[in-house]
Write a structure and sequence with these properties.
about 350 residues, alpha/beta, TIM Barrel, Type Iii Antifreeze Protein Isoform Hplc 12, 2 domains, two-stranded antiparallel sheet, 11 helices, 12 strands, about 30% helix
Length: about 350
Amino acid sequence: MTKYEIAGRQIGPDHPPYMIAEMSGNHKGDINRAIALINAAKASGADAVKLQTYTADTITIDSDRPEFQITEGPWQGRSLHNLYEEAHTPWDWHEKLFRHAADIGITIFSSPFDPTAVDLLEELHAPAYKIASFEIVDIPLIKHVARLGKPMILSTGMASLGDIGDAVAAVRETANSPMILLHCTSGYPTPPEDCDLNTIPHLADSFGAMAGLSDHTEGVAVPIAAVTLGAVIIEKHFTLSRAEGGVDADFSLEPEEFRVMADACKTAWSALGHIGYEIKSSEAGCKQSRRSLYAVADISAGDVFSDKNVRSIRPGLGLAPKYFPDVLGQVAARDIKRGEPLNWHMVSE
């Protein structure tokens, strides 16, 4: 598997999960709010903040036709063009946002939605590219990005195995750029029962690539569970305040919630460890709390061991309890005081 890193931060099973705060349109059209989101993402434990680079006119057209109207979900009643006009991150903000992120020490990159967006991001030396779920079927766009040879993250919401296979093949046939696939359910918000997190290891195995999660559920439980299934990236929408609104606010985390999620995901990753049955250092002091065979009455040399003078009790300094049937009926080789742990030297041949 290709080594994968973004801006010097290695990503993979041997490293803590990479936490991405998705700004999307939660800046509410205010560049100062966008800068505040970058600051908050850094303070909340995010490894990166991600933008979306498009304009309403590069992603759709302004049309009154029915197929350009949104009829369900959180944006019901709006047109595509109207929604994207509100949600887009103005292109003339990008340089300032990239520069500010560099100044405070957090990685920033974006999802481009057409080649002109890629060209803009290349001028800003974007360290990686995210292909959004709805764009995974845009093979020309994927090839355009893959030719750059930079790390790619492909989100798979609504994609069939065939769709994903086409996208993966496009990357590998073009430049074999480092690539991670994000399992995603494109519900806004997504009910946890629709997440099917067991898809994460299957996704990784099916395409010989690392996998992560782009999450749209409310709360932090689903991303934590995803880490235990091998997710190496967690992407979550991020807002300063749900109460203040924003196009994605309803399924976004506030800063303290993101910090809790980031800490918990890293703890979950640490807990995975390796396959092992050795006694851990934290357990060492408890070993003697196991049961073992002890004399529970004074026993004279030549006495027969019975359930009246030998029992399995704590602590665990004597013979293991599994030897109790072998000791019963045997003869004491010497005097044994009540409270002494049994060993084989106390038992006559």
